[in-house]
Amino acid sequence: MDCKRITLSQKDIPAAWYNLQADLPQPVPPPLHPGTKKPLHPSELEPIFAKALIQQEISGERWIEIPEAVREVYKIWRPTALVRATEFEKALKTPARIYFKDESVSPPGSHKPNTAVAQAYYNKMEGINRLSTETGAGQWGSSLAFACAQFDMQCKVFMVRVSYDQKPYRRSMMQIWGSSVTPSPSPETNAGRQILAADPECPGSLGIAISEAVEYAATREDTKYTLGSVLNHVMLHQSVIGLEAEKQFELAGDFPDIVIGCVGGGSNFAGLAFPLLRHKLTDRKEMRFVACEPHSCPSMSHGQYRYDFGDTTQLTPLVKMFTLGHNFMPPGIHAGGLRYHGMAPMVSLGAKLGLIEAAAFHQIECFEAAQLFARTEGIIPAPETSHAICGAVKEALRCREENEEKCIVFNLSGHGLCDMASYDRFLGGHLEDYAYPKEKIEEALAELPVVE
Ligand SMILES: *Cc1c(COP(=O)(O)O)cnc(C)c1O
Fold first, then answer.
1. In a domain? residue 187
2. At 452, is the pLDDT very low, low, confident or very high (cuts 50, 70, 90)?
3. d(CA 312, CA 217)
4. Do residues 145 and 219 share a domain?
5. Looking at the domain assignment, is residue 285 inside a domain?
6. What is the mean pLDDT of the segment spanning 341-349?
7. N or C: which end of the chain has fewer CB within 10 A?
């Protein structure tokens, strides 16, 4: 094997997305209405989501055709390379073969535009001219801003105020792509005005920004809301990652034993893992799937598989997922993203069924793994991605101890070039590892809604 980068041509961009719902041994539990706690009727989501996306959310079809206009935009950066991390392997002195799928090459720098482009397209087809959303550090907001620019749509992003003030570069990216970026809480919505009346200096939170973005869409005919992770249709759109990887492994004459990704809401992990998981489900291949998360926000490792709200303000439907409780807040010293309290229902069900395992890491070991990766393979990964790299390091070192020649693949979900402030804290010795926040988790779990 002497091929470093396994590349495909543009005609190899998948023609259909893969829907794992068709092959799971049991259906994903339905979302429930937050008030009545009865299964939600799909039409109840229509005020905020495009109809085509709601259909995909509940679809059991195995293959869903990718519209030509979406594939056309994918051509800007897809297919992405599958890269053999030869220098990283040497540094780890491992007999394992390590590959990564490079999703950092999209214009916004992560996997997120795989779904942003699809969501913008379907909304445009339904006559919607503006999309609203929330963003924390700006990864999702910038991906949606890029996608809206491609389809000549307007984009309204509510950005958590502290990030708006302290992380200006992704805000500038969104503005360059023509999106309107509003610091949240804002005086533009009822939700924002209420918060500001109580505390004019409120630094904002993702929960508040979600409330503002949903209200903004629900109160306007021409605007719908979008979400960048967690939902089934997002997992579906991200499957292009694994479908391409499948072809690339065939070209390389290799096949993964261990598939690794970092998990926030679960979408980049699902994107790589689900098309490969099919081989375990239908061909009974021996494979392991490892979802990597921070010790400070360990929803898969320490959460419960329960119905919970998607947001702090209890506005969203209840979904069955591994959750730490909607009121859980990770400790402030955590620098690496992946702060969501829950996990995608599809990834959660996969874990419940024993198909997916979880691993939790401390932040300093993640940044160390990221630095070793940057020094050997050149790419500076996003702090989120460093959790997947840390997972790959652990597996590679285990292979060294047990002298096993396993094939490992991880998803390089994004680059870290807009996250150098976190790297500065690491280099300056200002990062600390935290103990597992046991009390905070117990408190938040005690506040889970009672459904069954
Ligand atoms: C948003 C993001 C994640 C976490 O979200 P998932 O839905 O779990 O993929 C991970 N890596 C990068 C680079 C991101 O931007």
1. yes
2. low
3. 19
4. yes
5. yes
6. 97
7. C
| Averaged pLDDT of the chain | 95
Same domain, 287 and 398: yes
Mean pLDDT of 16-32: 97
Q: Which two tokens stand for residue 51?
A: 């109809």
Residues 210 and 138 in one domain: yes
pLDDT band for position 339 (50/70/90)? confident
Rounded to the nearest angstrom, the distance between the alpha carbon of 221 and the centre of ligand 1 is 30
- Mutation choice for ligand 1 from 144, 413, 418, 422, CB with most ligand atoms inside 8 A: 413
Q: Can you tell me the distance from the alpha carbon of 187 to that of 209, in angstroms, rounded to the nearest whole number?
A: 12
Our count of domains for the chain comes to 2
CB neighbours (10 Å) of residue 376?
16
List, in sequence order, every residue forming a beta bridge with 133; answer none if it has no partner.
157
Same domain, 200 and 328: no
**Are residues 161 and 225 located together in one domain of the fold?**
yes
Residue 450 inside a domain? The answer is: no
For range 337-354, the mean pLDDT: 94
Pair (26, 156) in one structural domain: yes
> How confident is the model over 354-367, as a mean pLDDT?
97
Asked whether residue 452 is domain-assigned, the answer is no
CB-CB contact of 392 with 413 (8 Å)? no
Distance 268 CA to ligand 1 centre (A): 6
Q: What is the CATH number of the domain that holds 168?
A: 3.40.50.1100
Query: Do 271 and 241 contact (CB within 8 A), yes or no?
Result: yes
Distance 341 CA to ligand 1 centre (A): 14
pLDDT value for 336: 75
- The whole-angstrom separation of Cα 239 and Cα 170 is 25
Domain that holds residue 212: 18-66+110-232
pTM of the model: 0.97
